[in-house]
Amino acid sequence: MKRLSLWAALAAAVLATSCAMWTRIDSPTIAGPSEAYFVDAPVGWVQLTMYTDGIRMTRDGFSVQLMDVTLTPHGKELARTKKATSANMPAQELAEALLADLRGQPGLGNLTVKETVPARIGPYNGFRVQAQFRNERGVAFSMVIYGAALPQGRLVLLYQAIDRHFFARDLPAFEGLVKSWRTKRAA
Amino acid sequence: MRRIVIAGVALLALCAGQAWGQSHRVHYTLLEQPPRALPKKILLLPAEITVKEISVGGVPEKVPEWTKQASDNVAREVAALAATRNDFELVQLPELTPEERDLLEEYLGVYFQVAVAAHRLTSVAVGGWEHKRQRFDYTIGDGLSFLKQKSGADAVLMVIGEDVISSSGRKAAFVLAAAMGVGIAMGQSLLSVGVVSLDNGDLLWMHNDLSVSKDLKDAESVREMLKTIMVAYPGLPAPKPAAK
Amino acid sequence: MGLRTGAAGMALALCAGAAVAQGTVPPFADAAATKQRGSDEERAWFEAADFDRALRRSGALRGDRELDAYLQQLLDGLFPEFQGAVRVQAVRDPVMNAFALPNGSLYVNLGLIARMENEAQLASVLGHEAAHFVHRHSFQQRTTAKDSAGFALVIGVVTGGVGALVANVVALNAIYGYSRDFEREADRIGFERVARLGYDAAAGARTFELLAEEAKILKVERPVFFASHPQLEERIASFKELAAARKLQGGELGAEAFLARTAKARAEWPPLELSRGKAESLAHVLSDPQRRARYPAGDYWLGEAYRLRAQPDDDDRAAGAYARMIEREPDFAPAYRGLGVVRMKQDRAEEAAQLFKRYLALAPQAPDAGFIRQYLADIEPEDTSTGESK
C-alpha cells in the first residue's frame, strides 16, 4: 500500500509539473499570494495557478506573451545579482537593480532600455521601464516593467510580448492591470 | 503497480504536450458556417529541417549533408504532393531584398514561438485551455503581407522537421528537440506543417507528425509522412446534408 | 521572476580532464588549407555557422566597424597567412572573455578590450585564440568527447548575452576552455606570434594577471576566459618562462595606438558593467587612480560603482568620487545627480535638493529629469522647484 501511494504521489507530482495547472480568468479580480494585493486581470487570459510567488498569466502562451506581478520581501535577494532592495530605495535605483538582475537571465543579457520614467503604482512612487531584446532567431520582444519599493517589499509588474503584432495589441490590458493594482479587494 | 507506472508515463507524455503519432489543429473560422475561404495559392517557404546524430558519448550534432538531403526531400515531396491537389496551387518564393529576407526570417521565428504555444497548450490533456482548443485562434500578425503582393499567394506553407539518429551503440534516450518543444527519442522523426494566412497571419491549419522509425533522409519515408499530413489538409468536417 | 525567453538556456559542460591525443590532427597551414575538411570537421563548422548567425541576430555584436577593423588588422598581422579565413568581431558583453569557433570566427568581448592596457596584451589574446583555430583544438576536443563512453552530460544554466546562445558543444568548447595541453599549445603559439611582431614579451603574463585579478574580485574559481586547465597562476608562470627561454625582454606595447582606437569601447564599458550588476568589479578597477585615468569620467563611474555596490561606507566613498568629478569638471551634470542621490539616502535633504537643482539646471532635458523632480518633491514637499537656481 505504501509503495502504491509513493508511485501515485510521484505520478501526481510529475503530472502537476507537466500539465502546469492553468485556470482561465473568468472574472477580473485576482488576488496575489496571501491576498497582499489585488489586480484586475483581462478576462479570457489564462493564469498559471501553480505559480505561487505572484500572479502570472498569458493569453496565447508564455512563448508569445506574459504578465507577471510579484511583491517580494526586501530581505529576499535578487536571484542573480544577489542584491537586496530596501524600502527607502530611490525608484531609479530600484529600476537599475531590477534590470541588472534581469540581464543575468539567459537570453536577456542584451536587454536594451528604451525609456525609464517615474510612475505611480497605487499610492506609491515608482518607475516604468520600456525595454527590448532579441532571441537567437532575431525575434524582437518588448517589455514594460513597473516597479516600486514598498515598505513590505519590492513590487514588480512586468509585461513581455513578441514585438511584432502582439506587444501593442496586449499593452492596454497590461496598463489596465497596473492601474488596478491595490491592497484591498474592492477597487 | 506496473499499470500505474505505465499510465503515469503515458499521462506524462500527454501532459508534456507530445502528440504521439499525429496532432491536428484548424482555425475556428474554417469551421464556422459559412466557413472562411481556403487559400487558393500557397507559397512554400524554405523548410527548416535538421538532422542530428547522437554520438556514443551522447553529444547531439547536426549533420550538414543529411540535413541538406532531408531538406531537399521535403521540398521535392511537398511540391509533388501539391501538384496532385486541385484545391490549391503551390507557388515558389519570389526574389527578396535583404530587408525582406531579414523580415521573413524574423517572422519565421515568430511563427515558431506561436506554433510551439499553439501545439502544446491546445493538447487534450492540458486543462485551462479548453477555450483555445475548441476555438483554435492563433496568429502571427500581418507582417508577411508583402509576400502576398510579391507572389500573389494568399497563404504560406511552413514546414519544420527534425530527425534524430543514433550512432551505433548508444542506448535510447530523450533529446529535447528545438522544434515544437517536443521530446524526440532516438529513431524518431518529427514533421510539422502549418498554413498561415498572408491576409492577417492566422494559423489556418497545423499538423504535426511524430513518427517512429521514419527517416527524413529517405525520400520514401518523407513522401509517406507528407502524404499522411497533406491528406489531413484542410481537415474540415464534411458538410451536413441539407434538411429535407 | 523566472522569465522564459526564446533561448533554451541550457549548457553542456565537458567532463574536466578529458584525455586528448595530441598531434593527431595537423594544424591548418594557411587560409587555403582550411577549405580541406573532412565530414566530421564539416559538422563542427556547420554548427559554428549557426552560432555566428545567432550571435548576429540576437544583437549581441557591438557592430562598430572601426573597432572590428582594428581587431582584424591586429589579427591579420599575427597570422598573415590566414587572412580571410579568420575573422574577429567585438561582442557587447562586459565579461572579460574572448573565444574562437572551429570555423575561424573569433569574438572578443567589450569587457576584455576595455580592461587591456595596451596593444601587446590585446594581441596576446588574439594570438592565443587564433592558435586554437589554426591548430583545430575545438574540433579535436569535440571528437574526443563525442567518442568517450565516460562523457558526462551536465546541464547548467549559463548567464549573459553570449552564454545564452550556447546550445551546442562546439561553442561551449570554445567558451569554456580547452584541455591543459591545448591551452599550453595555444599559449606557446600565441606567444611566438606576438614576439615575432616585436610586441612586449611580458604581455601574455600580464593578461593573465589581469584575469586572475578579475577572478579574485568575482570570487570565481575558474573564470570564463582560459577557463579549464591549467590554473591561472600556472599560466602566468608559463608565459614568463617562455619569455625567459627566448631571452626576450621589453618590446612594443603599442599603448598609444591602442588607447586611441579603443577609446569608445572604454567609454562604454563602465555603464555596461553596471547594467549587469557588476558594481564590485567596476569599483575594483576604477579604485586604482592610474587605471581610472584611462576611462572617460572615471571618477563619476567610480562614484556610481560605489553607490550601486552599497557596501558599508560605500555612500561616503561614492560621495568622494562624485566630488572629485565635480571639481575636475564643474559642468558634468550626472555627478551632481549621483551625489544628490547619496545625500538623499543619507537624509541630508537640503544638500540633496541643491545638488538635484544644479543637475536639472545643467541638464533640463535629461531622460531621468522626471525622477529628479520627483525626488525634489519628496524632500522639499512644499517647494515644487523646477530646478532653476535661486
Describe the largest sheet of chain A. 8 strands, antiparallel
Low-confidence stretches of chain B are 1-20, 169-179
- The CATH topology name of chain B reads Rossmann fold
Q: What would the principal axes of the Cα set say about the shape of chain B?
A: globular
> What is the domain total for the residues of chain A?
1
Structural class of chain A: alpha+beta
State the end-to-end distance of chain A: 50 Å
CATH class of chain B: Alpha Beta
CATH superfamily of chain A: Mog1/PsbP, alpha/beta/alpha sandwich
CATH top level of chain A? Answer: Alpha Beta
Account of the 3D structure:
Chain A is an alpha+beta fold. Helix content of chain A is 26%, strand content 36%. Chain A has one domain: Mog1/PsbP, alpha/beta/alpha sandwich (Protein Transport Mog1p, Chain A, 3-Layer(aba) Sandwich), CATH 3.40.1000.10. The N terminus of chain A is likely disordered. Chain B has 244 residues and is of the alpha/beta class. The radius of gyration of chain B is 19 Å and the shape is globular. In chain B, α2 crosses α6. In chain B, a hairpin with a 5-residue loop joins β9 and β10. Chain B has a single domain, classed as Rossmann fold, CATH 3.40.50. Chain C folds into 2 domains: 245 residues, no CATH class; 116 residues, Serine Threonine Protein Phosphatase 5, Tetratricopeptide repeat (Alpha Horseshoe). Helix content of chain C is 56%, strand content 4%. Chain C has 18 helices and 5 strands. In chain C, α14 runs antiparallel to α15. The relative contact order of chain C is 0.10. The N terminus of chain C is likely disordered. Chains in contact: A-B, A-C, B-C. At the A-C interface, β6, α2, β7, β8 and β10 of A face α16 and α18 of C.
What tags apply to this protein structure?
heterotrimer, A: 187 residues, alpha+beta, Protein Transport Mog1p, Chain A, eight-stranded antiparallel sheet, two-stranded antiparallel ribbon, 3 helices, 10 strands, disordered N terminus, B: 244 residues, alpha/beta, Rossmann fold, eight-stranded mixed sheet
Question: What is the element layout, followed by pairings?
Answer:
The complex is a heterotrimer of chains A (187), B (244) and C (390).
Chain A: H1 2-19, E1 22-24, E2 29-31, E3 38-40, E4 46-48, E5 54-58, E6 65-72, H2 91-102, E7 112-121, E8 124-134, E9 140-150, E10 153-162, H3 163-180
Antiparallel strand pairs in A: 1-4, 2-3, 4-5, 5-6, 6-10, 7-8, 8-9, 9-10
Chain B: H1 2-15, E1 21-26, E2 41-44, E3 48-54, E4 60-62, H2 64-83, E5 89-91, H3 98-121, H4 130-134, H5 145-151, E6 155-166, E7 174-176, E8 183-185, E9 188-197, E10 203-212, H6 219-231
Helix pairs in contact in B: 2-6
Chain C: E1 11-12, H1 39-57, H2 65-78, E2 87-91, E3 98-100, E4 105-109, H3 110-115, H4 119-134, H5 137-147, E5 155-156, H6 169-176, H7 180-196, H8 203-218, H9 232-245, H10 255-261, H11 263-275, H12 279-286, H13 289-292, H14 298-309, H15 314-328, H16 333-345, H17 349-362, H18 369-379
Parallel strand pairs in C: 2-4
Antiparallel strand pairs in C: 1-5, 3-4
Helix pairs in contact in C: 2-4, 4-7, 4-8, 5-6, 7-9, 8-9, 12-14, 14-15, 14-16, 15-16, 16-17, 17-18
